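Readers outside the structure-tokenisation community will struggle with the description of the input data as it stands. For illustration, here is how one protein appears when written out as sequence plus structure tokens:
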Amino acid sequence: MEIKTYLNEKRLVVEDALARYMLPAQGALASHMESMRYSLFAGGKRVRPILCLAAAEALGADPQPLLSVACSLECIHTYSLIHDDLPAMDDDDLRRGKPTNHVVFGEAGAILAGDGLLTFAFDLMSDYSLGGLISDGDRLRLIQIVARAAGPLGMVGGQALDVASEGEMVDFETLRTIHGCKTGALITASVQAGAIVGSADDKQYASLTSYGEAIGLAFQIYDDLLNVEGTTEELGKAAGSDADRDKATYPAFFGVEGTKVKAQEAVEAAVAALADFDQRAEPLRELARYIINRKR
């Protein structure tokens, strides 16, 4: 299969759903809504929602009921980027080739845009009028999995540890914890969401979870590498910023070539986790391989 074609088709499906679900920029709160929409529709690969849909398809399920959940994952991811770019965090002025949210809407506006997207995500996930084919039990399970992945034991905790580790001598286990929480947790939850709605049995769920953990690791390892080897024009954000902020990264531990080996190992682990799945899981396999061949 041609993974770029698949990704583009699914991206359009997700963006169409986001356009339908996202609050319009009108009325007294128009400026706040516009700041949320600015970052949400600023581009991006939509990897997390696509993983969610592809996991359901790998089980032969209709991904349509998952669209609101998939869009929720993108809202959470976008919120994390807005806050990550803030002056108190990474202090970046460019994201996806455009001025970051706080540059356009001010620091307070950006904080509130992130807050709005995070809470709106759970509004979407719990809305029975969107994807009503999801059972009550599965919906509650989805909300809990995503909340844990986004919260203090997941993405937020990883960000906190990342910030605390800047300029410090950290060991490899700390780096693994940062990557596993900051990036891996929400990616894994995206795959798990598709597994739940796809009615995965225990073995299938475990295999898809292993896939999600491996692909999440590969994604962050390769992000570390791109920050070293990529250009600002290619990345759509400042290149070399990790070294400038003295962040713990895979290239800092293993060098560029060693990092490439680690990324390939993670991809191979992701593909191996799908050994018992048929051709319907091919998009997931190709997605894993695509991760270490992208430019941004």
User: Anything to note?
Assistant: The chain has one domain: 3-291. The two ends are 21 Å apart (CA to CA).
